[in-house]
Amino acid sequence: MRFYKIISIILAVVISMSGCSAIGQPLGEKNTPVPTVIEGYTAKGVGSAKTLEGSCFIVNVFLSDDSSKWSDEDKHGALVYLENALEFLMAQADRYGKMLSFSFTDEDASANIKVSGELPNDSEGMNKLFSMMEESGMSIKRLEEKCGLENMLELYDNVFFLIFVNKQGRSYSLMYDSQYSDCEEFFSERSVLFYNTDRNYKYCANAAVYAHEILHLFGAADMYQGSKHEDMGSIYEKDIMNKTPFDMTDVSIEAFTAFCVGLADTRAGEAK
């Protein structure tokens, strides 16, 4: 049984390819909560994606450039990956006794934005990517206004953006982090998710990659070799923050990640 719903009406935002038209409520003044840093690992209850429980609303954005466009088939493929990722997250939340549900914009209600030039394909180019969006007339701040972020946060426990790019690239996430001077710019937490189907490509997209990136928005840390918390990866080998296989039965949310995203109160939290 699925606990999330696909928004098939214009509920949050509809934007033309030129970025000229949209429906939404304007934002009022925003009160940013004070971060609660827990043992130096995570900050819970901050930003627009606080803890991985309750109701979540996702604003999907399909971003195109001069060489990459979105067909209906490709959009459907990306949303299938997303659906599978959300199913996984809900099942994992249930293991820890937490209720979790998702609503998200479908192909018709999602934002479609065309930028000029070539979009960068990794996190090193994130500033360029968001600058290109702004130059197109649809910056993140503009998206916040058009979808009525503040109003949405009154209706849902968590709200975040997923920006899909239809080309090969390494997906990444931008979460609220009080340690950075520009944290206010990232109150609306977001992931940039690349879509491709070449399984021989090192960073080929799949549902596990999308779930991994969404978990970052809620405070999860990387555990793979070479990351800051690779020591945790050696302990929790099956954790989805350690690896992102095509077969999601090979991964789960283990105790450390559960603690980071709010599914468990301590790092020794137990699942069913």
The helix-and-strand class reads alpha/beta
H-E string:
EEEEHEEHHHEEEHHH
Beta-strand proportion: 15-25%
Broad shape: globular
Helix content: 25-40%
Radius of gyration: 18 Å
The number of helices is 7
What profile does the largest beta sheet have? Answer: 7 strands, mixed
What value does the average pLDDT take?
A: 82
Q: Span from first to last CA?
A: 19 Å
**Residue windows where pLDDT falls under 50 for at least 5 positions:** 1-41
Q: Using DSSP, what is the number of strands?
A: 9
Q: Would you mind describing this structure in some detail?
A:
There is one protein chain. The protein is an alpha/beta fold. Helices cover 27% and strands 17% of the residues. It has helices at 72-95, 126-135, 140-147, 149-155, 207-217, 230-235, 255-261, and strands spanning 5-7, 36-38, 42-44, 54-64, 100-105, 111-114, 158-165, 172-174, 190-194. Strands 1, 4, 5, 6, 7, 8 and 9 form a seven-stranded mixed beta sheet that branches. Strand 2 (36-38) and strand 3 form a beta hairpin. Mean pLDDT is 82; it is low at 1-41.
Brief description of this entry?
With 272 residues, the protein is of the alpha/beta class.
Q: Which characteristics define this entry?
A:
272 residues; two-stranded antiparallel sheet; 27% helix; 7-stranded mixed beta sheet; alpha/beta; 9 strands; disordered N terminus
Write the topology of this structure.
Layout: E1 5-7, E2 36-38, E3 42-44, E4 54-64, H1 72-95, E5 100-105, E6 111-114, H2 126-135, H3 140-147, H4 149-155, E7 158-165, E8 172-174, E9 190-194, H5 207-217, H6 230-235, H7 255-261
Parallel strand pairs: 1-5, 4-5, 4-6, 4-7, 7-9
Antiparallel strand pairs: 2-3, 8-9
Helix pairs in contact: 1-5
